[in-house]
Structures are given as structure tokens and as C-alpha cells.
Design goal:
122 residues; 3 helices; single chain; mainly alpha
Length: 122
Amino acid sequence: ARVEGQTAATPHLPPLGLHSASQINNFNMLETSLNFITEPSDSERPKQYVPRNPYHTPSCFPGSPAQVFDDATIFSKFDTDTLFFIFYFQQGTYQQYLAARELKKQAWRYHKKYLTWFTETR
């Protein structure tokens, strides 16, 4: 049932009689904003990519990282760019921790607010 003063674009207006144009506009904006409400999953960390149709690779191609990357001493030999790559693309892993530890040894500091690394220029 349609109430007088209610338009087809504003079906949720309360049946209080005539509404002003600004009230109708406010209701329309409110209803539109509800279409873009955040989901609880918006604040979750992105999950690791899992392909839908994984390609079967030959057995000679490794399916998991080599055990050598679990050794902290090898990280001191990596270039700074490699350490940054490991830090940002191996999130939540022991390798990320080792890369962060090595960057800290090289006088880099991670800023939690800006989510980036900084170092003093000399």
C-alpha cells in the first residue's frame, strides 16, 4: 500500500503523511548508504591465494619452500630488496619474522601506524 507523499524510490518511509523534499532526499541517501555497509570480512587479513584449478607441476619443481629458508643465518646474506620482498609477500610466516629481524639488524625500523620501514639517512 502506498502512502500519500511516498514515492516509489522511497518505499521505507514511515507513513507519517506528507514529507518534505529534504526528508525524502535524506531517506534516499540513508537507504543508499546501507547498500554499501561494511562487512565483518572487510577488516580481516587477506587469506593466502589458493587457485581454483591448480596446475599439476612436475615432481622436480618444489611444492614448498626449501628447508634452507628456515635457517636464520642465510638471511644475513640476502640483499635488502629481497628482505623487503620476503617481509611483504610471506606474511604470517617464520620467514617474514627472520626478514624483519635482519632488516632491524641493518638499522631499519618498522612503523606500525604507517605499516612501512624507515631508516636514518647518513
